[in-house]
Amino acid sequence: MEASFRARKMGPVNSLPFLALLVILAVVVPALTQEVGVIGRRKDMLKLDELRNQHVVQRSATSEIEDEEEEIDLNLMARMLRKLKQEEDEDEDEDQASDSAKATKGPAVDGEKLIQEALKGNVDPNSEVVNLVESMLVDENFKHNQQPSGIEKIAAKKGKVYGDTHDTHRWTKEQLEELNNNGGRKRNFPRSVTLWDEKIIPYTIADSLANYPRYVDVINKAIKQFDDYTCLKWVPRDSAFNTASYKTYIEFFSESGCWSYVGRVFNDKQQISLQAPFCVTLSTTVHEMAHAIGQLHEQSRGDRDDHVIMKWDNIQGGRDNINMAKDDTHDYNPYDYESVLQYSLTSFSKNGGPSMEFTDPRLNFLADSATGLMFYDIQDITDAYDCTAPCKGPNKDQPLKQCQNGGFVLHTCDCHCPEGLTGTLCETVVTDPVCGQGIIDLGDGESRDITSPYFDFGGPYPTGKKCVWLIKVPAGKHVGMTINEMDLTTTNGACDHWLEIQYNLIGQTGPRRCGKLTAPEQYITSQYGNPEMMLLKFDSAFASTASAGKGFSLTVSTRGTGCLGAPCLRGVCSDTQDGGYLCTCEKGFTGRNCDLYLGTGDILCDFENACLFRNSPSNKYTWTRHTGPTSSTGTGPRSAKSGSYYLYAESSSPVSTGTTFHYVSPYIKAGHRCLTFWYHMYGSDMGSLNVLRNGSQVWTRSGDQGDSWHRADFPVGTAGLKYNVGL
Fold first, then answer.
1. What share of residues in the chain are helix, strand, coil (percent, to 5)?
2. Residues marked as catalytic
3. Which stretches within 272-364 are classed as H helix?
4. How far, in whole angstroms, is CA 256 from its chain's centroid?
5. What is the CATH number of domain 1-18+586-727?
């Protein structure tokens, strides 16, 4: 076994040394513009929409009157609204096309090239492609379920990460008392908060922002999200659209930090600070506006401990940090890792380490992915402000649409569907005909196979396709999915084509899997949200010019609760009738959880071929297979001890001091064994390398060991107990 290690700013002895790579980021931030005509058109649309709604309510109250003039007025309003909306959409399309041409300095690049540019740091970190790459979990060489190398460093430059880290609150006396007393509240709306009960939020923009068209443009785009998806209307304070009886209004201005009061708290001016330029991003602006309408943070929910592990030792102020305080809540919608109100995982860290972790690390990428109001944010606001009340008629006795498959009714009285679903009631999937049946209903105990197009003929799958499958099982059951085989192409450690698995919440982005799988892998829907549904999405269209692999073979099934938590480490889980589980182990493994290796011969890891050791599932950062010299001077090695490849761990930003990298064996039957490996520890800031047996240290080296490979050889076996070995 060979390994190479280099460290910078390493902390205690139990942290492993690692290799730091230098990445030069050339961030392109396209200019934003403001068009006066667009603002004026939005004002016209708001007024027309308000007049039409008032007219509809009045006519509903006197439905026996059929006045021709009133009918003409309604039709005229509707036509004018459609025309204004069409003009706005056309302007937006032109702006997007112009921005795209400017950003690419020529014809739009294809998806494959765009992904590679994102990996190099040559795109705006706030762009959707960075979110896309961050969601990828890749199997390539010795990597298993790992993000593309370097993407965390690029994603750390997102505006949302900055906004979350510099987010503060202004509190009234009553709100502080409630927080101190942990008073009850609805969802993340505090009990004492005053809402904008007329659903109108007047606003102004101070000169510190208004004098810069690109900042005004961001605010307008944030306002448009509320206009499009909620019943809350942000209107210019001095315009005819401000019909609110209260005098409170919001002033957007630039001061120190990103902050807002929570709810409507004053009788006149109430401020939202967006310190230019770093707080003036779409996600941060929407985040602060969400506070202003009465919402607090996702990680403050009463059920947060079911979803988030707080790292108090890493948090500024520890448990006294009010932004991390937990409160009693009535949680009518599921905890959403993707919420615009969910902090990034290093927010308010005092040492660069994580301030919190998700209980399911496969979903860590969601913490900084919000681009504004997300699916469940919209549902939260709709519920809190009773946005569907007009849809129930003047007597509140008309039923709402019965949206299916995780959809919900918007203020427009139409269903808002999870992405990939469509139809009046979200009853249809958006899929290519070549993909086969899109909705699969399973009975109790039933299973079905799903394959990518042409898989049964040996592949390759066609490019340029998008497939969606909605898997449904009876109420009270879960959807289980096993990836039996997967060969989806990758380039430089990132997906060209992928399978997205929406298993946690039906309306939440799922991890995107790609590469070549060497052993079956299981997913099961969570117990939150809609456990009886799972969405699967195959995409070979985004990077349609990339070559195709064989594809994938999946098995979907109706499952009970026994396999929740994926207990089978090296095998496939099945539910038992008593609510437990049974593991079917991979060849060479046994034990209730398939965690005991049966082999008796030598275990060889030369990193030229597959290795029995694996990165620990608890790793935030992983060991990586590498060939050739390291990328910086004064470190090593220049090559492997023998062969072409060696293993190393990378410690450059955002990796923090004290981070550990674990590379572990399965449990091995009791007996006498020796561990032999070669290591390279060269560099002025070298940390420590430790070998652990069943969690206890049996060997260690620290500091610079010189520019050469060294051999270690010592006993690790036990006489009577099974054991595992970890680096």
1. 25, 25, 50
2. 288
3. 282-292
4. 28
5. 2.60.120.200
